[in-house]
Amino acid sequence: MSQQVKFTLGADEYPHTWYNIVADLPGGAAPALNPATGEPLTPDQMAATMPAELIEQELSTEREFEIPGAVRELYARWRPTPLFRARALEKALETPARLYYKYEGTSPTGSHKPNTALAQAYYHKLAGKRGLVTETGAGQWGTAISMAAQLFGMDALVFMVKVSYEQKPYRRAFMQTYGARCIASPSIETAAGRAVLAEDPDSPGSLGIATSEALAAAAADPTLGYTVGSALNHVLAHQTVIGQEAIAQMALADDYPDVVVGCAGGGSNLAGLAFPFIGEGLRGGRKARVVAVEPAACPTLTRGRIAYDFADIGRLSPLVRMHTLGHTFVPPGFHAGGLRAHGIGPLITRCLEENVMEAIAVAQTDCFAAGVQFARTEGILPAPESTHAVLGAVREALRCREEGVSRSILFGLSGHGHFDLAAYQQYFAGELTDESLSDEALERSLAALPELVNV
Ligand SMILES: *Cc1c(COP(=O)(O)O)cnc(C)c1O
C-alpha cells in the first residue's frame, strides 16, 4: 500500500463527459408532472424555463453527455480536484479503516456548485439569454451562479433567503464582486414575495419562498434564464465529474471504496461523487455501499414521504416525485444552510428505492465536533454541510475499529467553511443546539402535500 496522501491526476485528466445514471438505474427516473393536468411535463412546457440542451439532458436515457469545450476549458482552472488519504484522521480515530476524501473546496467559490453553474450558464447563453436568475440559501449556489454569469458575460439576479442575507454579509459581497444583484427574499420585487410579506412582514424567508421569487422573476422577464442549484437530473449529472475523477484517483491509490459517504441537501454533491460508483455496480462491476447523511432537523430521506410535491411554497414548479417533508415545511435555523431543503433529487429517491443507497440523519453539534476534529487533523476547515459527510465517514471508521476490520471509506468534502466561521464561533461558545423535528410538525406539513398522487 502506497504511503501517498494526495492522489493527483494529470492536468488534462478530467472527464470529457457527464454521467447519466438513468441509463443504468432499473426503472429509470420518475417524470415531472404538470400540476394542472397531472400529466408528464412535455419538453414544450419545460422550455418556459430551460434551454433545449438542458431539457434533453433532463429527459435523456443516454449514459453520457459530452461536456462542451467552453465549459471544459473553465473546469480546467481548478479540475481535477484533489483526492486525499486522511492518514492523520485515521490515526486520531485509531481505526484500521482506510479513509479518503474528495475535496471540492478548491473551486474558485469554495464548493462543488460551479460544476453545474458553468454548464447552465453556457446553455442559457447559447439560447440567447442576457442574464441568469436564481435563489440561494446559504449563498454557495448564488456565488457560483454569479461567477458563472460573469465568466460568460451575463448579468446575475440572486434571491437570497433573508435570514442568510443578514447573517452572511460576506457571501453577499462575494456575489457583488462578481457583479451580481443580490436581493433579500421575501422581497417586494415579486408577487410571491409581496404575498409572504403581507402575511408576515418579518418573515425570515425560506428556500421555497426564494424559489418562488426567482421563478416569478424569470416568468416576468424572458431575457433571464432560470437556473437550479441542485436536485434536477441534469444538475446531478453535471456533478459526476467528481465521482469519475475519484474512480481514477482511487485506482492511483491502488484501492476501491467499500463505502462512499456524502452529505445530502438537494443531493447534487452526493450524486456527483456516488453515481459513477453506483453505476459501476449496476453494470455488474464492483459494488460500494453508499450512505447519504442528512441533518436530523431536516430529515428528508429518513422521515419524509415519497410523493409528488412542489419544489417551492408558491407552487410554481412542476410536481416531482421525491422524498419530501412537504413544500410548506420551513426547517429550523440550523447552520448547514445548504442542507435545508424539504425535497431532494428524484434520482436520489430512486436510488434508495433500488437499495443502492442508504440514509442516516445526524445532529448538528455532532457534525461540528467531527468538523473540528477533521480541521485539527487534516488541516481543512469544512463547510457545515460537509461536516455531515465527515461525521458519516468517522462513524463508519469507528465501526471498523469495533469490528476489527479494515474497510476503505471515501467521503465527499463538498466545500470549505471560510464563510461559515460565525457558526463555528457559536459552536465554540456552546450556543449551538440540536433541534429535532416533532411528529406533529411533520404531520402538519405532510398534510399540505398536493392532492394529486401519492405514488
Ligand atoms: C449546496 C451545498 C451542499 C448541499 O447541496 P447538495 O445539492 O445536496 O450537494 C453541500 N455542501 C456544500 C459545500 C454546498 O455548498
Automatic annotation (TrEMBL):
<dbReference type="Pfam" id="PF00291">
    <property type="entry name" value="PALP"/>
</dbReference>
<keyword id="KW-0456">Lyase</keyword>
<comment type="function">
    <text>The beta subunit is responsible for the synthesis of L-tryptophan from indole and L-serine.</text>
</comment>
<comment type="similarity">
    <text>Belongs to the TrpB family.</text>
</comment>
<comment type="pathway">
    <text>Amino-acid biosynthesis; L-tryptophan biosynthesis; L-tryptophan from chorismate: step 5/5.</text>
</comment>
<keyword id="KW-0822">Tryptophan biosynthesis</keyword>
<dbReference type="InterPro" id="IPR023026">
    <property type="entry name" value="Trp_synth_beta/beta-like"/>
</dbReference>
<dbReference type="GO" id="GO:0004834">
    <property type="term" value="F:tryptophan synthase activity"/>
</dbReference>
<dbReference type="GO" id="GO:0030170">
    <property type="term" value="F:pyridoxal phosphate binding"/>
</dbReference>
<protein>
    <recommendedName>
        <fullName>tryptophan synthase</fullName>
        <ecNumber>4.2.1.20</ecNumber>
    </recommendedName>
</protein>
<keyword id="KW-0663">Pyridoxal phosphate</keyword>
<keyword id="KW-0057">Aromatic amino acid biosynthesis</keyword>
<dbReference type="GO" id="GO:0005737">
    <property type="term" value="C:cytoplasm"/>
</dbReference>
<dbReference type="InterPro" id="IPR036052">
    <property type="entry name" value="TrpB-like_PALP_sf"/>
</dbReference>
<keyword id="KW-0028">Amino-acid biosynthesis</keyword>
<dbReference type="InterPro" id="IPR001926">
    <property type="entry name" value="TrpB-like_PALP"/>
</dbReference>
<comment type="subunit">
    <text>Tetramer of two alpha and two beta chains.</text>
</comment>
<dbReference type="InterPro" id="IPR006316">
    <property type="entry name" value="Trp_synth_b-like"/>
</dbReference>
<feature type="domain" description="Tryptophan synthase beta chain-like PALP">
    <location>
        <begin position="79"/>
        <end position="414"/>
    </location>
</feature>
<dbReference type="GO" id="GO:0052684">
    <property type="term" value="F:L-serine hydro-lyase (adding indole, L-tryptophan-forming) activity"/>
</dbReference>
